[in-house]
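thought: user wants a sequence for this fold. calling inverse folding tool.
action: design(structure=
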């Protein structure tokens, strides 16, 4: 009996596989419901998921299928995997027919303009169709502008008039606008973009607004502050964000604001957006900062009898600098060619306090002042990157050591050197210092053992922030009452960052720390640090969206997951970013389901270069009053 049932099942599978009369979505639903794995991923290229050879076709098919809502999470994850394997392609049905049946045609045409619903064909959102009556120019303006539509065909005194006065517009500027919408080939330029944006905003011409915005984003001939002012005046949020994103450190942004006359014209909202951007950026101690490190060497001849001479520390550009001259030696310590190595040592300014990660890119011009006042100078060839582990720059010169004592450079026993420093970029970030927890204090009452490290902390303080610590220290566990408690499966440096955030201080969550703080906050159930970590992830631009999705997946943060997925505006964008990442294979089934759902919610869109041709075609504007209109569209979809 069992073998007979197996034969029936095998026969049913074969029928489903070979049948051309059953829709592929239905096959997938049957395969899903009855767990027919070989039907889901059959080797033949003619069936189910493997039957689709491009992602667009698969997306289009399943987006329309009512079966999609009945699929299990496993099936949706499989669909997502298949989409990621495939390439997006244009569909083959480039010639489509948009059929528009107009009821009560005579009555509707009496209004002067009739508008269809939006069509969706060929996997794209297509242009709305219009039929208009009356003056050709009035008809065309009404298509592009609801203001003109109301003016010409609404209940206003201008309705039916042969002449309509437009007030408060400059003739030449309005003529540019007409050229854009009427001729279609007239291009927006740096000269015209400002007044076209103004007129398009006034007359609510969304298409012209979009084109003007795109021109401003792409133009290199318009200052970013002027772009930002236009974005502010005409509420172009995307342009505003693009302009703000051009600044990657707060010093550049601040200097640009201070030097710009446009700043005083900004709205309160724009100023708030600028302030928000400055807060998100990493503090830059300096940018393009230039300063002079001057070193007067008294009793120079006597000092040069030694093999090395070093200056005292001096400050500049947020750093502490030390200059040294040293006779070059070989590996055995013997003088080599009697030449001089000039060196510069950089350290973080002690005033900043705390233990810090830092880096600085700088270039130098090294100068020696002669008796006659002239300067002998030589320049470093490349930028040098200083950081906490590589803090000394050495310039191997051809200058002879004995020449330093030559009378041409000695003035009243003194040799004067200058290092002209240009800092191209720099930044610093406070990092955790274990010294704070290295010894007992009057506020510590337990020692945490993390690997080979001992940390003196307060039970009560940790328990206030974490129910896990509260249970560990005061619950019915063997750790209760112990003077030393081992914390397993954590990285010492990461746990130290967590303690510095729990204890009052100046530490904040950064791009470097946010992922392990999120992990530890989740482990120890520290709600306020979880919230701060998620807020940082949702606002930072220093972490790519794929890594944010990984964090959302690992710690089941649906809000972050949905926010990241909503940032994708097209199917192409999702597949390009996620598909190119090696992390995709690490996503859970639930995340793949969410990605698949997002893909199904999106519609691929294209804007046509032929839109103007369509919008101004004589064939369209000369239609009379048919009850049924059939318009053929060939390859120009929006």
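)
observation: tool returned 638 residues.
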């Amino acid at each position: 009996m069992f073998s007979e049932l197996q034969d029936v099942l095998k026969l049913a599978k074969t029928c489903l596989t070979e049948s051309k009369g059953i829709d592929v979505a239905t096959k997938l639903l049957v395969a899903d419901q009855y767990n027919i794995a070989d039907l889901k991923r059959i080797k033949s290229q003619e069936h189910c998921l493997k039957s689709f050879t491009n992602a667009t076709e698969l997306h289009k098919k399943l987006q329309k299928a009512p079966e999609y809502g009945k699929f299990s999470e496993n099936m949706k994850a499989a669909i997502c995997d298949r989409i990621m394997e495939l390439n997006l392609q244009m569909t083959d049905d480039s010639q489509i027919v948009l059929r528009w049946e107009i009821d009560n045609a005579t009555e509707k045409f009496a209004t002067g303009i009739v508008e269809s619903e939006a069509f969706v064909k060929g996997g794209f959102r297509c242009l709305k169709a219009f039929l208009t009556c009356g003056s050709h120019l009035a008809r065309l303006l009404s298509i592009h502008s609801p203001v003109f539509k109301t003016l010409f065909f609404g209940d206003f005194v201008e309705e039916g008039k042969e002449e309509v006065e437009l007030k408060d517009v400059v003739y030449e500027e309005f003529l540019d606008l007409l050229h854009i919408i009427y001729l279609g080939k007239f291009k927006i330029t740096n000269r015209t973009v400002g007044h076209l944006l103004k007129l398009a905003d006034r007359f609510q011409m969304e298409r012209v607004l979009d084109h003007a915005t795109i021109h401003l984003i792409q133009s290199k001939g318009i200052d970013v502050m002027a772009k930002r002012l236009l974005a502010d005046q005409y509420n172009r949020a995307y342009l505003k964000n693009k302009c703000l994103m051009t600044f990657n450190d707060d010093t550049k942004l601040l200097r640009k604001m201070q030097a710009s006359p446009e700043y005083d014209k900004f709205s309160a909202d724009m100023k708030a957006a600028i302030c928000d951007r400055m807060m998100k950026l990493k503090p830059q101690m300096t940018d393009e900062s230039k300063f002079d490190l001057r070193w007067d060497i008294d009793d120079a001849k006597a000092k040069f009898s030694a093999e090395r001479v070093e200056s005292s520390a001096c400050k500049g550009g947020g750093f502490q600098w030390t200059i040294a001259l040293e006779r070059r030696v070989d590996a055995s310590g013997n003088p080599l060619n009697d030449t001089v190595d000039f060196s510069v040592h950089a350290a973080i300014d002690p005033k900043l306090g705390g233990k810090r990660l830092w880096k600085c890119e700088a270039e130098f011009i090294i100068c020696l002042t002669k008796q006659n006042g002239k300067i002998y100078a030589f320049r470093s060839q490349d930028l040098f990157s200083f950081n906490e582990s590589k803090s000394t720059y050495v310039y191997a010169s051809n200058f002879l050591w004995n020449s330093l004592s030559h009378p041409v450079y000695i003035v009243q026993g003194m040799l004067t050197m200058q290092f002209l420093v240009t800092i191209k970029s720099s930044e610093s970030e406070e990092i955790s210092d274990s010294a704070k927890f290295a010894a007992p204090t009057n506020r510590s009452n337990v020692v945490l053992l993390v690997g080979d490290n001992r940390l003196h902390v307060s039970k009560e303080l940790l328990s206030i922030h974490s129910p896990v610590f509260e249970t560990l220290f005061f619950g019915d566990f063997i750790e209760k009452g112990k003077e030393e408690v081992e914390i397993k499966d954590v990285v010492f440096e990461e746990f130290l960052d967590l303690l510095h955030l729990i204890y009052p201080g100046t530490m904040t969550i950064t791009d470097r720390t946010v992922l392990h703080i999120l992990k530890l906050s989740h482990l120890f159930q520290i709600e306020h640090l979880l919230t701060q970590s998620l807020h940082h992830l949702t606002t930072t631009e220093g972490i790519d969206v794929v890594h944010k999705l990984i964090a959302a997946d690992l710690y089941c943060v649906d809000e972050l997951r949905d926010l990241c997925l909503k940032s994708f505006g097209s199917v192409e964008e999702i597949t390009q970013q996620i598909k190119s990442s090696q992390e995709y294979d690490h996503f859970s089934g639930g995340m793949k389901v969410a990605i698949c759902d997002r893909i199904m919610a999106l519609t691929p869109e294209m804007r046509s270069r032929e839109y103007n041709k369509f919008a101004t075609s004589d064939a369209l504007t000369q239609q009379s009053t048919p009850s049924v209109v059939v318009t053929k569209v060939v390859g120009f979809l929006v």
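thought: summarizing for user.
answer: Here is the designed sequence. The longest helix spans residues 2-18.
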